[in-house]
Design brief:
Distance between the termini: 40 Å
Number of domains: 1
CATH architecture: 3-Layer(aba) Sandwich
Largest sheet: 5 strands, mixed
Order of helices and strands: HEEEHHEEEEH
């Protein structure tokens, strides 16, 4: 049962994030076939979410995982966050921006994106994580309203 609950939680999180992206960009985002989002899709895509009728600008990986704090995620032993980012980079096609979306229960949604992909954005409310591919971590709400 715990595996089933975890899978449902991840699927629900992906649907929530897809709705946010759909509203922001005016293009319908859906879960990819390997995420279980399409019954029998012939479309190939990387990441957990893809736009249906637009080029894929982001390779989006969604993680809804309990039991972490920011201090733990970004400590010198940041194995959990590093594993998420590594998975994303392995799936991300060339020319597409990797975007990690993560949260846990009763917490806001955050994104991690490469610093070079947001160079034109204001840097208030963001934390730059040096040493992990020059990433920027920020609340998804902030990124949505400033992009």
């Amino acid at each position: 049962m715990p595996g089933h609950t975890s899978r449902n939680k991840g699927s629900g999180f992906e649907r929530t994030v897809a709705k946010i992206f759909s509203n922001k960009f005016g293009v319908e985002y859906r879960r990819t076939p390997l995420s279980g989002g399409w019954a029998k899709g012939s479309k190939t895509a990387a990441g957990d979410l893809v736009p249906l009728d637009a080029p894929q600008q982001f390779c989006i990986e969604c993680k809804k995982v309990e039991g972490w704090t920011f201090e733990q995620l970004f400590s010198s032993q940041h194995a959990l966050f590093s594993s998420w980012w590594k998975q994303l980079l392995e799936e991300c096609p060339s020319g597409v921006q990797p975007l990690l979306v993560f949260s846990k229960n009763r917490s806001q949604i955050y994104i991690a994106i490469r610093k070079k992909d947001v160079i034109a954005y204001p840097f208030t409310y963001m934390e730059t994580i040096e040493g992990i591919d020059n990433l920027i971590i920020m609340p998804l709400d902030f990124w949505i309203t400033t992009s």
